Every structure is written in C-alpha cells, then in structure tokens.
Amino acid sequence: MSANPQWDVSRALGVARLFHLVCGVRDACVTPFLTLYLRQLGLAAPWVGILMGTKHLIAAFWGPFCAFLAKNYQKRRVLLMGSLLGSAGASLLLVLVPPLDKDLRSGSCNASDGATPTAPPPGAALTGTFASNQPPGAPSPASKSSPRTVEASGVGKGPAGSVHEPSGHPPGHAVGSVEGARTTSLAVHPVTSGVKAPSRQGAFKVGGTALPLLAGGTALGSPANWSAAEGHARALGLSSEGLRWTFFLSLGSMVFWELLTAPLEQVADDSLYEYLDCVDAADRYRSLWIWRLLGMSTGACGIAALAGRLECSLVTNGPRGVLHFYGYSLVSTLALLVSIAFPVPTCRRREPSYKTVKALSLVAGDPRLTLLALTVFLIGAATSTVQNFLFWHMKDRGSSELVMGFSVALGWLGEIVVHPFRATLLRKLTRVGTVGLGLGCLAGQLLYYAFLWNWWSVLPAQTLSAISSGALGWAVKASVEHLASPGMERPLSAMFQGHFYGGGSSLGSFAGGFVVMSFSLAVLYQACCVGLLLWLALFLSVQRTLPQEQRINYSKLLVVEASDTSDSEQGTERDWLVKAMREEHSG
Question: Major facilitator superfamily associated domain location, by residue (predicted)?
Fold first, then answer.
C-alpha cells in the first residue's frame, strides 16, 4: 500500500494545505462584504436578514446531505470540481441584479470610499434638505418629481425635512426611494446615524439603500411616526415594483449560488480525513484549519485593497462591490485547478448508515449535549448579527473597506496566535470554564459594538475574537468529543457545527434584520449581549446540578493487542485500565 502513489501522504498534505489556503482567499473575497453589497443594491435590513438567513439555512442542511450522497456514490471529486465551477459562475448572477436606483453609477468613487477615512470632526454633518414649500399637513407635489439639494452644514436645528448624516458618508454614496416610487439623489442615510424625522408625507419607505434610523433608535418612517399597523405595513410591504424585482432576483441568485457552494467544505474535509485515516495519519488532519484562516485573512485584506484602488477605473456603472465577485470567480477557478490533485480515498470502509439520526439521539439523550447544543445555537444567532451588520455600523462611522477587511483578519489571526495555548487553557479552566469565558468575551464584544464612536474603534474589540471565537470553538469541540460515544465524534461535531450553529445563524439573521428596522443596530447588539449573559448564568447553574459522570475512552484500550494478552500480563492490563480512567477523569 505504501508503494502506491495513491497514498503519498506528504504530497496529499501539501495539496490539502494549498487547497485550504486558496479556498480561504476565495471565501473572504465576498462573504464578509456580502451584506454591504446588498445594502448598495438598495435592500434594507429586514430583506438583507432574510437573504442571509436563507443562505445559512441552505448551508446547514444541504451541505451535509450532498456530502452523504457524494460518499455513497463515490462522486466526491466530481462534486468538488462541480461545486467550484458552478459557484464561480453563479456568484456573478448577483452582479446582474439591478439596484433600486436605475441611475446608480460609481459616484462614490470621487469620495473617500477607496481611501483611508478620517474621523469626522465633532459636530460636522451633511444635511440633505427637502425642496418643498408645502406645509407639514399638506400633500407635497415634490413627492412626484421634485429635486432635492444636499448642502454641508454644522449640526443645528434644520428644517422639518432635514436629514443629518455623518461627514464620513459623502453625497451620492447611494440612493433612496421615497414613497416606494420616486428616485432621488439624496445620500444614503446611515443605519445608526442621527436622523431627524420628517413629516409623515415625506417619510421613507423600504426601498432606500438602507432603512434610515433615528438617533433615538427608531426607524425613519417607522411606527414612531405613524400608528403601529400603518408603520409596519409601509415598512414591510414590497409595494415598489423595483424593490420587489431587486429582492426576488437577489433571493434567487443567492439560493442558486449557495446550493452550489454549500457542499464544498464538508465534502473536502470528509475526503481528506478518510484519506489520512486509511494510512493511519488522521492526527495530521487537525492543523489544516490554520491554512484556511491564513487564506481568509489574506483574501479579506487583499480584495479590499484592490477594490479601493481599481474598482473606480474598472467598473464604470453599477453599485460598488462588484469587484469582490470577480475576484471570487477568479480564485474559484484557481481552486478548481488545485482540486484536480486533491486527495480522495478509494478505500471504502463499512460504516453504519444514518449517523446523523444516531448523533441526534445522543444529543437528546444526554443533558450535557442538549445544553451544549442550545449554547451553540445561541452563539450562532449572536455571531450572525456581527457578520451581517457590523460592516454597516463601520460604514456609517466612515470606515473604508480596507479597514473592514483588516478588522476581520485581525480576529482570524488572533485565533491562530492563541492556538498553541489551547491545551493549557482547557486544562486550567476546564471545558465548561472555557465555554463560559468565550460566552463572556462574545457578550463583551457585542456590548462594545453597540457604542462604536469612530471607524477605528472596532479594532480593539476584534482582538477578543481569539477567545470569543477560537477558544470557545475549541472548548465546544473538546466537550463534544468527550461526550460522544466511540465512533461518533466526527458526526456529532459536524452536527454541532452545521445544524446547530448554522440553524442559529439563520434564525439570528431573520430576526436581526427586523430588530434593526424597528429599533437600531445598537439595540440589537445590546439585546444580544444581555441574552448571552443570561444564558451564561443559566449554563453555569445547570452544569452544577448535572451529575458528575466518569467516562472511559475505550478506544485507548484497543492499543493492547489481543495477541499480547496472557494470564501473566493481567497486572499490566489492569494498570493500563487505571491509567486510562485517571486520564479521562483529569481531562
């Protein structure tokens, strides 16, 4: 078997590292910036939440199903190459979706989007003034076609139709739609900016680039200005034909794209693990995730830098951000070439079917696993709010895409730096203590995000991702492997990462968009912080009431070969059993 080039482990690991690196670059080209692009199309927070929730839901259930089929029918390489090729083309469908503003061009290229932003001076603002002479109670003829002017001024008492915006957002950044029908050249209103409410007839409907929010946390054109029923009807109704067209085209494109993309990661992981397991080298599989994070860090910073420098010259029309999709398709093509040499096992091992059902029964039958599954579900819901809307928050503070890319890369690199201390941390704090520490750090991050005051202020909080994402993930994985029955470690870990975490991300995306619309991003992050702290207290309390269980990893006992056992060696075997029990108890 060792003479067969099929089992060249060093070559297989080299190809796998390159594949993970390239796929990390590929994912980071679009995934962190996707909601920012949807905002440029003109979709408000609720519709972006629906799109992202659908994406997470497909990934949570469609990916494992395709991996199961590919394994049973021995079509893993075909699925790998088909997923890469199909997703490279499907990602470009979103570029074809028309934005709400038909006249939208890359007008913000003349602004500071591609340059390093500077903090707006205290009190500075841009005021968009409604050109209307009608009294507040009368219908405005400007609602049909009247222009608007944008003028710079300091903060002060503007007219009844004034809209205040931080100076970090230049005019022409994006466009809003008034009363679901007319298009104006007014700059986009930040999701968290201070906005003075206009009169009722001048209220914005969902159909602007992002539903503007008042300084106090209420949406412009929200139930704060109308009755609750009328406000929600106006805010949620797809009455504008352009909005309906943009939303459903975006939904169809994202569903088709995710159906092609979702199977890739799990099929590649299962294929590589089984390949290494066939030659007793599965222990070398654990360190490959570092290459994906390195690729993601490089991709997020690289594509943001390229977009800032080249997009204005290469993309003459359409919303900002299309260069991210071109980069995604290009890197997908490179990953397709690498996948030709990706290790795929040819040996088939007899394994029981329906491992997912068995893993689910384990979760339902063990209170520790049940509590851990609920914890992972809530973590997914909380982190989805960061993934979906943190860049909106930073954009409203004047941040450039390069700073956004660097901020997420800082968190990923932090996970890599802290990883050598994994064993020490788990030993000192125990698995339960490390989960508690991770939940506390995540709650602290969310509370910090609620009070961002400038574009660079997000960077210190990103260093906590090493604990809130890295250490928390290690503790959950170690707990799952400890509580799983022999042979169920990988299926159970896949269920926690895919179904529970992905399901939580889906629900968090669906709910988060409507919370942003009804209140504000700050309220969303504060609510998530409070929810995590309450669950942390409940998690630690319930853990103390659960009976202490002592488990033995019987797979360790298999090291003693049956041919070596004899009556004279009973004392040695007894010592081995005691040692295994002590290690499990101390772990």
Answer: 28-527
> How far is the CA of 572 from the CAs of 200, 567, 586, in angstroms?
85, 10, 21
- In terms of Cβ atoms closer than 10 Å to its own Cβ (0-12, 13-18, 19+), residue 499 is buried
306, amino acid identity: L
The pLDDT tens digits of the residues spanning 459-484 come to 999 989 999 998 899 999 999 999 99
Q: Are the C-beta atoms of 93 and 256 separated by less than 8 Å? A: yes
Q: How many residues does the chain have?
A: 587
Q: What is the pLDDT of residue 159?
A: 37
For 530-545, the DSSP string reads HHHHHHHHHHHHHHHH
Give the pLDDT confidence score for residue 234 in this predicted structure.
Answer: 44
* Locus of tokens 């469609």: 62
Beta-strand pair 182-183/163-165: unpaired
DSSP for 461-499, please give it.
HHTTHIIIIIIHHHHHHHHHHHHSPTT-HHHHHHHIIII
Q: Count, in order, helices (H) and strands (E) of the chain.
A: 21, 5
Q: CA geometry: angle at 438 spanning 492 and 27, to 5°?
A: 65
Q: Which residue has the tokens 């109670």?
A: 137
Q: Rounded distance, CA 258 to CA 83, Å?
A: 10
DSSP state of 555: G
d(CA 44, CA 238): 11
Kindly report the number of other CB atoms within 10 A of residue 387's CB atom: 20
Please name the residue that has the structure tokens 């997000």.
458
Q: Give the global pTM.
A: 0.75
Residues of the chain predicted below pLDDT 50: 1-5, 105-107, 111-237, 556, 560-573, 586-587
Provide the token pair at 517: 């619309």
Distance CA 18, CA 456 (A): 33
Pairwise CA distance, residues 24 & 22, whole Å: 5
How many Cα atoms sit within 13 Å of 382 on the Cβ side?
Answer: 29
The DSSP bridge partners found for residue 164 are 127
pLDDT score at 279: 79
Residues 36 and 94: their CA atoms lie apart, in Å, by 13
Provide long-range contacts, Cβ within 8 A and 24+ apart, for 350-357.
Answer: 355/488, 355/491, 356/64, 356/68, 356/491, 356/495
**Half-sphere exposure at residue 140, Cβ-oriented, CA atoms within 13 angstroms:** 24
Cα 405 to its chain centre, rounded Å, is 13
260 close to 234: Cβ distance less than 8 angstroms: no
DSSP code at position 436: H
Asked if 456 and 120 touch (Cβ cutoff 8 Å), the reply is no
How far apart, in whole angstroms, are the C-alpha atoms of residue 100 and residue 209?
Answer: 8
CA 18 to chain centre: 23
Order the strands of the 163-165 sheet from edge to edge.
148-154, 124-130, 163-165
